[in-house]
Amino acid sequence: MYLDAEDEKILSGEFGETRQKMMEILVALGRVYNAEKLVPIASAQVSGASYKTIGKWGLEWLSTLDARVAVPTVLNPIGMPRDEWRDLDGITPEFAHQQEAVLTAYHRLGIRMECTCTPYYLQRTEYGEHLAWSESSAVAYANSVIGARTNREGGPSALAAAIIGKTPFYGLHIVANRRPGVVVEVEAGDSLHADHYGAIGYLAGKEVGNRIPFITGIRPGRDQLKALGAAMAATGAVALYHVEKITPETRVFTFETEGLERISVGLQDIEDLFETMDVDAVAIGCPHCSPDELREIGDLLTGKRTTKPLLVFVARSVARDNQDLVAAIERSGAMVVPDTCMVVSPAMDHYKAIMVDSGKALAYVPGMCGALARLGTRKECIEVATS
Ligand code: F3S
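# FE3-S4 cluster complex -> structure
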């Protein structure tokens, strides 16, 4: 892999041990994937931020690093809301102490203390920009909805790219690798509801695996695309998808889909996922809510009181910039929770059954929280939480 003179100096250790190690990670990745060079990135998003997922060995490694990030960088959700962790059952002082230590280690590296899987709500991300993002739903959104270019980075490789300001040029950074490999035909016609997109993604992801799907038969908005991609990234390993006439690259390129495998998702398959089950909590915001979603939740809660815990997860900046919407939700007794989420926080681990409105959460809650998961529309979630 070609390295310029400065890259070579970093690799030789001239700019410190941490930058040397980070360059070694990028060079090793580049060799594995036959990258011809490194490419500058516009931003990074680093996973491995919750103490629940990285544990003491991850914290120990982070604490040894000594460098500054070279591009705007944010973190994936951590295991608790930074300032309000005492408001949540299930966060022990010991966990909070360790989580704080993780944040301190990242802060020393110059990473912005924003912990979210929706970094695109915080900083403008442009079509065609190269990124090093690691949370799978954020990767799918960046590639598919924005038309930016990022591979599905691991935490260490995203951090290495953030510190060096570059990433190996392979995979989805190369336009020729962004062509679809399978067609998904959604056959639901006008009966499709805005809240069905997580279910479509849940079903499609299982069939698609790590291929790039070209999806027909749907006309989603941005929030529905977010739900669709998050779920396909969870049940499959989808890092990029195209939706006919909707996502930007389908308007720029002509994709040849003749001869590709065709998978169909029907309305009955979608509706079958919305099964009924008693739950003891309701969680919304996987991925983190947009301002429009906060508004919808607030409207649905107008005049109601919660009878079960209802947690709504969001990026801290989005909550801060939309305090009226947050207040409208919290008037009902629901909690708007920044920085963390239903999967990476131990706060959900003591529930036995959790209702979610997200195909990704449906896939992850059982394994990560040890709880049963029930999928509902957002309206059903609010009804169950206030019934
Ligand atoms: Fe985000 Fe957590 Fe879901 S990181 S996509 S809210 S599992």
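# post-check
The CA atoms of residues 28 and 160 lie 11 Å apart.
The chain has three domains: 5-175, 179-272, 281-386.
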